[in-house]
Amino acid sequence: MLNIVLFGKPGSGKGTQANFLKDKYNLVHISTGDVFRKNIKNQTELGLKAEAYTQNGELVPDDVTVLMLENEIKQNLPCKGFIFDGFPRTLYQADEMNKILFKYKMKLSAIVALDVDDDLLTDRLLKRGLISGRSDDQSREKILTRLNEYRNKTEPLIEYYSKINRFHSVSGVGEIHEISLRLLDLVESVK
Ligand code: AMP
Q1: Which CATH superfamily does the domain covering 2-185 fall into?
Q2: Among 2, 11, 169, 189, which is most buried by a count of CB atoms within 10 Å?
Q3: Per residue in 102-123, pLDDT tens?
Q4: Domain segments of the chain as ranges
Q5: Residue of the CA atom closest to atom 14 of ligand 1
Q6: Among residues 87, 102, 116, 86, which one has the least CA distance to residue 15?
Q7: What is the CB < 6 Å shell around ligand 1?
Q8: Partners of residue 83 on adjacent β-strands
């Protein structure tokens, strides 16, 4: 199996690149943000739990998110592999993910962060907000909350994964296809 974790700040292009890798390697793409948005739209129990957090740009509590992730994995097995887009985002989630992977006899092939600086991201997100209609893309304040959540809760994962030598950082600046090629090189080297 080829299992890739793709993380990066909001607006770093995770979704676009995850889609590219999914098509290229025939993987199942699990975007936790998309799963939350779908559930919020359908007002499911999960959606109701997640709604206030996602709308404010805060992370959804770990217990809710971890349960959701395990369900998504279970529903899609067997498969050639997964691309995890936006999970894990906290150290607790990373620990829980290890337990889930062990349970289903899976291993991570690579953890990749798309690297883009904050000023560029704020501009990208405000522009995306005009098209996506996503409420968390609409205001500088919410974008700032999301960037702070990333810095405080998600960035520690870089050290966590660097210790097991599975961590890679790829520049997320440039044309979409250039970034895809960088990712492709990396995935080919870990496959
Ligand atoms: P994204 O589409 O990845 O930018 O995620 C949108 C929103 O969904 C985030 O701002 C969080 O509110 C929520 N979310 C997505 N993934 C996670 C996660 N792994 N842990 C907690 N909340 C998450």
Answers
A1: P-loop containing nucleotide triphosphate hydrolases (3.40.50.300)
A2: 11
A3: 999 999 999 999 999 888 898 8
A4: 2-185
A5: 33
A6: 86
A7: 10, 32-33, 36, 53-54, 57-60, 65, 86-87, 89, 93, 136, 146
A8: 4, 29
